[in-house]
Amino acid sequence: MEKARQAGVNYIPWGLHHRPMAILRNMQGEGEFTHSIQKVPVMSTQKPLDEQAGDLFIGEYSPAGYYCSAQTFMENLCEVKNYNLKSREPVSTR
Predict the structure, then answer these.
(1) 8 Å CB contact between 93 and 76
(2) Distances (CA, A) of 53 to 59, 61, 65, 73, 92
(3) By three-state DSSP, how is residue 59 classified?
(4) Is the CB of residue 64 less than 8 Å from the CB of residue 17?
(5) Which long-range contacts (CB under 8 A, 24 or more apart) does 12-20 make?
(6) Residue 81 has pLDDT above 50, yes or no
(7) How many CA atoms lie within 13 A of 90 on its CB side?
């Protein structure tokens, strides 16, 4: 979708589904790279989810996903406010 490309995001149309799931593949970071995915601990059912978010450990390098309808995406990009990389200008959703 052109709007997604302009916003610098990937839009994945799910279609009909029972339980959507995305699989993220990453490469192991160099030992000196402090924002490597390997810095994120394995999720624990004994801790609250908000204490285990990837961005707490690797900041803006943490992947993020949002789920909304195609109509909502076209109207306001799923109401996501922080989807842009620092080097990109915000895209008007009007």
Answers:
(1) yes
(2) 10, 12, 12, 24, 28
(3) helix
(4) no
(5) 13/70, 20/67
(6) yes
(7) 8
Q: CB of 91 within 8 A of CB of 7? A: yes
CA distance 81 to 85: 11
**27-78 tens-digit pLDDT:** 777 778 888 888 888 889 999 988 988 889 988 888 777 778 888 888 888 8
Q: Are 59 and 40 in contact (CB under 8 A)?
A: no
Backbone angles phi, psi at 85, to 5 degrees: -70, 155
CA dist 50 and 27 (Å) reads 25
Q: What phi and psi, each to the nearest 5 degrees, are found at residue 84?
A: -80, 145
At position 58, the amino acid (one-letter code) is I
Of 92, 71, 94, the residue nearest 1 (C-alpha): 71
How far is the C-alpha of 18 from the C-alpha of 59, rounded, in Å? 31
d(CA 54, CA 36): 10
